[in-house]
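User: Could you write out the 3D structure of this protein bound to magnesium ion? I've included everything you need below.
Assistant: Certainly. Input first, then the structure.
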Amino acid sequence: MDLRLNNISHAYEELQVLKNIDLDIRQSEIVCIVGPSGCGKSTLLRLIGGLEQPQVGEVQQIGEPPPGSLNPLTYIFQDFALLPWRTVKGNVSLALEDHDLGSKERGRVIDDVLRRTGLAEFGDALPRQLSGGMKQRVAIARALSVRPAVMLMDEPLSALDSQTRELLMGDLIDLWMNEGFTACYVTHNLAEAVRLGHRIVVLSRRPGTCR
Ligand SMILES: Nc1ncnc2c1ncn2[C@@H]1O[C@H](COP(=O)(O)OP(=O)(O)O)[C@@H](O)[C@H]1O
Ligand SMILES: [Mg+2]
């Protein structure tokens, strides 16, 4: 499944945040969106994910999500968004609980994504027992568990120290080499975008427009 953004503009009352954004995100491609703080990157991801409707323009989903996809679009956030009282397995399970999977199938999906993200031995750990990089791997595992067509990643490495950021970038590249996932990856860090992105879209200062 591809995503096509057609001439998107968005404002919050008087504040024009995005203007005339055209963008295609094609299957198995990592598109990085780079821009200064406040230029509208997170807003753009929310519009892509359907959490908000753009005032002008539209986001089209072209083609079918992967077979067995439970959610075509999933988010990964800077702050990991893990529930501290749930184990790693319990946090991954969160994404699956709204879906009609038997407990056996759910267990199988969880084991599978934990293995793919190198967390197989940590299923019963609590978030506080994990490093920041591992917490973000849990969030990535949770996102993968629904077989998304596109992962929407909002500064996923920004809360991590530089060494951990490097390691996790390597993990993401390995994962992409194995699985060829599709992502729209937002960051204010140009070096990260250059390393990860197949394409880089630079947003200007507000109102953000594509260059
Ligand atoms: N729900 C909202 N209501 C009003 N203003 C908002 C809302 N969300 C974001 N903004 C404003 O829109 C601008 C862009 O925000 P955001 O998309 O979060 O930028 P970025 O992620 O690039 O830092 C900022 O000035 C922010 O204060
Ligand atoms: Mg943001």
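The mean pLDDT is 93.
User: Perfect, thank you.
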